Amino acid sequence: MQQKAKEINATDCLPIDDYIQSYYLPVMYSIICIVGVVGNFLAIIIYLVKLRPWKSSSIIMVNLAVADLLYALSLPVLVQFYVTKAWSMGEFMCRFIRFCFYYNLYGSILFLTCLSIFRYVAVVHPLKAAEIRRKRWGILACLAVWAVSLVEIGPMLGMITVRQQDNMTKCVDFASNDPMVVWWYGWILTILGYMMPLLVVCWCYTRIAGILGSSISRNRQSRSRVRMLTILILVVFVVCFLPYHIMRVLRVDSLRRFDVSCMQRRGVHAAYILSRPLAGLNTFFNLALYTLAGDKFQQAFWSFVHRRERMSRQISVIHTPHMSKTDLLRT
After folding, report:
1. What is the pLDDT of residue 302?
2. Which domain of life, per UniProt (predicted)?
3. Of 15, 30, 216, 277, which is most buried, counting CB atoms within 10 Å of its CB?
């Protein structure tokens, strides 16, 4: 409380984090929400209608799309909160909405890790490729991801709280809660939930790159698709997830130390706020990932679009003969 009073009384402590939170987060979350809902809903429809029967990689992709869709659907509540600066939905919904972000985050990390492992087996151990493509391995992998993610994020439900500030109720982000409570748990999440999967992904694609570099049997298109898939997943891990995990550690550390000035603390918080939607942008990259997963998603997408166009044309042709000559002249 004394530290908070010092920050309020400091004349040189500009609330840059408040400005970023009030203007940057609503815009970014709105964009992610619109693209995430439309893109992932369409992806799920295409997998359900056009890409049956499923392989193991298809099942992983559908579950990844479901996770991203649930996350996108939770964002309007956060947009309303950051615009009005007041939380009106109670403590349970506060914990649930914050939980959705982290469940998607670490679920996405594990889904991408599973996809990398399956790709590694298919490329490096081709004799096992037929076995790893069976649906049961995709089902088992997805069940494991949902279960492990729940175990990882479950304790967070007891750490996220609402707080009274400036006569308004605030739904406090995980890293802005009691630093003594979240410090070690945040490190555990960073190591087990991010760093270990990153090492697994890097190892898998290092082996894949070695095999592709020495292989003369694979066609150029297949090797190009695998390389693009490799680059895309590594970009998601480095560009989306790495800044967030670094800034979350720094944010909690700035709260637990007493030798940090008000301006430094607000600067770290501002950088942490900037990194949060960046982590949510993995939903954008996941949409591009579907076209590189080897399930002919791109062809299925255009087939779905052209089918809708043909249906609309057929309907117009059916109704046109019933129009009178007078109506036709008027049009």
Report:
1. 64
2. Eukaryota
3. 277
